[in-house]
Amino acid sequence: MTRILPVLALCLITIAPAAAQSPDTGHDENVFVFGGPFTNGYFSDVFFVWQDHYETNFFAGAGYQKFLYSYGSFQLGLEAGLGLRLGSPLSAEAWGGAVARLTRFEMGDFNITPAVTAGLSVVTDTIGVETTRTEDAGESAALLFYLAPEIAVSHNAMPEWEAFGRIQHRSGGFGTLAHIDGSNAVTLGIRYKF
Questions:
Q1: How far lies 166's CA from each of 1, 6, 14, 29, 163, in Å?
Q2: CA nearest to 120, candidates 147, 91, 153
Q3: In degrees rounded to 5, what are phi and psi of residue 171?
């Protein structure tokens, strides 16, 4: 618990100035659904999506984002979500954290939007390679850090909708919470902004 308090304090210090600013007048809220297979590799391995390192376990989730601060093309906000980790055993996940995104890079009528979410994740049970890694480390993976880099694509004709690819990553944060690279899922999703 003493390790978690400094992390939570840092999150609050980071988000507090954003809450004091007025939000962008555009789409500052959204809901999304996404899903994809877990991999048996480490975080750096998941970017090689063409490699055959996928488990039979699958992640499916939904989330909500609220942006509280914007400056130019940069937005900062909060994200919360719930997911199911489908496989053996069945597991549930809840996460929350801060999200930062560059509102878009234009390529003709298409908009490319990189973003990253960082926070904490809690699960009811481990799944796949995460179970093996937890047993090998002799530590709990119930509460780990959450990191989700993503790339989203939208079209000018329907700016409120975007498709995205996201890495669903849980880990101990280089030994801060645990000495575990928990789980990684390669996901695709769709988001509605309002």
A1: 29, 27, 23, 18, 10
A2: 147
A3: -160, 170
Closest among 189, 102, 180 to 145, alpha carbons compared: 180
Query: CA nearest 59: which of 152, 115, 136, 123?
Result: 123
The two three-digit tokens of residue 178, written as one number: 């645990």
pLDDT in tens, 36-90: 999 998 887 877 767 788 999 999 999 999 999 999 999 999 999 999 999 988 9
In 10 A of CB 81, how many CB atoms? 24
Name residue 102's beta-bridge partners: 74
Would you kindly state where each structural domain of the chain is located, as residue ranges?
4-193
> Residues 93, 63: contact at Cβ < 8 Å?
no
CATH hierarchy code of domain 4-193? 2.40.160.20
Q: Phi/psi class of residue 5: alpha, beta or left (left: φ > 0; alpha: ψ in -120 to 50)?
A: alpha
First-to-last C-alpha distance (Å) of the chain? 37
Measured at the CA of 102, the angle between CA 96 and CA 107, to 5 degrees, comes to 135
**pLDDT of 143-192, one tens digit each?**
999 999 999 999 999 999 999 999 999 999 988 998 898 899 999 999 99
Kindly give the residue spans of alpha helices, DSSP state H, lying in the chain: 4-20, 129-137
Quote the tokens at residue 44: 């750096």
Asked if 64 and 83 touch (Cβ cutoff 8 Å), the reply is: no
